[in-house]
Amino acid sequence: MVTDLDALAQSAAPGVLVIIDGNNFLFMQSPLYGDYREPGFPGHDHQEKLITHVLVLLDRRPDLSVDLWFDNPIPGVEQRSERLRVIQSGGKGKNRADRGILAFLKQHKASVDSCPYLLVTQDKKLRKRKP
User: What pLDDT is attached to residue 38?
Assistant: First the structure.
C-alpha cells in the first residue's frame, strides 16, 4: 500500500489515474502536514501544502494524473493543472469524500474508456467497498 508521495512516484504503473483520499492522506502524514484533529478537518493551508506536493510528483511522473478528494460541505472541482483535479465533496456528515470516491469509481469502472486507477487511502472501509 502506498503511504507517501515518494513511494507513489516510485511504484505507480505508467498511465494510471491516482485517486487520493485527501483528508485521510493528510491524517496519515500528519508529521509532514501538521495535526489538524483539533478543528476536525484540514484547513486551506493543509490542503494547499498537499496540492503543492502532488504537483511536484506530477512533474516527476508526467505519465500520471491525479484526482485529489477532500471532505468539504461546499462542492467543487478545480483543475489545478492539466493532470490534477482537486475535488471538494460537498454534502453533510462524515465520509463525504469517501462516498464521492466510491460513486466516481463505480462510474469510472463502467466507462468504456476507463484507465487503470490507484486508490491512495488507509481507510479500510473505503478500500473494502471500492468496485
Answer: 54
